[in-house]
């Protein structure tokens, strides 16, 4: 079923790219999430319907909870792929460096279509479809299909629904718009099972993940204003729990969800001398702008960056900057603190 959605001129550019090029390399950012995987796999299905050949590459193994998605088992590591590609599409990636090693497969002078919704996107493609009104890159891919006049099959719809539901927090975040819900309803008419998808990607937890949550909550801190809270995840904690990178996802929501908190932060030890920082805000603070100052990016309400230094030093720097931002921001009428 077709929806009467507003399509910016860039959607025709993207549709033309889909039609014009073949032997396509499809990429997403390192450590892909539900929207990255849903958008690239949904687009891969569309391109296959158009008779195109696609190669899916990512620097990291696909998280187990997303392996049910059609074509997820087709991903290769960059070291497994020979040569370079002259026709490339990047999904859900704000800048070229986040493509990681996979970016080395892009030939010099390649045709590169950059499809994304992050406000911090630097338009690194030769063609760019960066829709800041979209809640998820999957929303953009759905609209590309509309521009192409293509009907979605169940496999494609499943991929796109996965990205929509994860990037809107189960349709709970402030980016849940009328258009998002119209698209989600449209995907249900194709036969998508909301319960099965949400249970797999948002509800089910591994035992190591439960153990990590328990130890992480022991680190919960809050500043004197009650408007900033944070947690810390060390390498030792992750190893003790027997967890993996996938198990860290979502931990930042615990400090963010504390009553009265405007900004929640997680500090996670990565490689030696590097700390991954995730931000979530509720109402007024633009954490995407803060992340950008530290070399990262994202959205106004959800963002991240990787900062050089040990955990305590990075924590001090980041908290100082966030406190400045919160002090200069009004208290939202719906925010209360003890």
Automatic annotation (TrEMBL):
Chain ranges of the DDH domain: 25-163
Domain DHHA1: 246-324
UniProt feature coiled coil, ranges: none
GO MF terms held by the record: nucleic acid binding
Pfam families: DHH (PF01368), DHHA1 (PF02272)
Stated name of the protein: DHH family phosphoesterase
Organism whose genome encodes this protein: Tumebacillus avium
């Amino acid at each position: 079923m077709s929806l009467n959605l507003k399509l910016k001129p860039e959607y025709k550019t993207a549709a033309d790219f889909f039609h014009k090029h073949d032997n396509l390399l499809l990429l997403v950012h390192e450590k892909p999430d539900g929207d990255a995987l849903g958008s690239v796999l949904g687009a891969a299905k569309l391109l296959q319907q158009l008779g195109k050949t696609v190669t899916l590459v990512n620097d990291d193994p696909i998280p187990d909870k997303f392996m049910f998605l059609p074509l997820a088992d087709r991903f290769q590591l960059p070291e497994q792929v020979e040569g370079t590609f002259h026709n490339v599409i990047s999904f859900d990636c704000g800048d070229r460096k986040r493509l990681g090693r996979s970016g080395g497969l892009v030939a010099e002078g390649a045709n590169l279509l950059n499809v994304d919704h992050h406000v911090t996107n630097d338009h690194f493609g030769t063609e760019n479809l960066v829709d800041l009104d979209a809640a998820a890159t999957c929303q953009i891919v759905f609209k590309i299909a509309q521009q192409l006049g293509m009907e979605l099959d169940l496999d494609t719809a499943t991929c796109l629904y996965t990205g929509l539901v994860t990037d809107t927090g189960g349709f709970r975040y402030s980016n849940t718009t009328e258009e998002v819900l119209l698209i989600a309803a449209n995907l249900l008419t194709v036969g998508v099972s909301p319960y099965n998808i949400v249970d797999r990607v948002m509800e089910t937890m591994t035992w190591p993940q439960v153990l990590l949550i328990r130890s992480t909550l022991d680190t919960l801190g809050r500043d004197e204003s009650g408007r900033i809270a944070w947690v810390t995840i060390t390498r030792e904690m992750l190893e003790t729990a027997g967890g993996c990178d996938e198990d860290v996802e979502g931990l930042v929501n615990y400090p963010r969800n504390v009553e009265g908190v405007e900004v929640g932060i997680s500090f996670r030890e990565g490689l030696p001398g590097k700390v991954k920082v995730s931000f979530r805000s509720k109402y007024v603070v633009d954490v995407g702008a803060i992340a950008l100052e530290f070399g990262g990016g994202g959205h106004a309400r959800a963002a991240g960056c990787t900062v050089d230094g040990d955990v305590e030093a990075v924590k001090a720097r980041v908290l100082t900057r966030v406190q400045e931002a919160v002090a200069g921001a009004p208290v939202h009428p719906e925010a209360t603190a003890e």
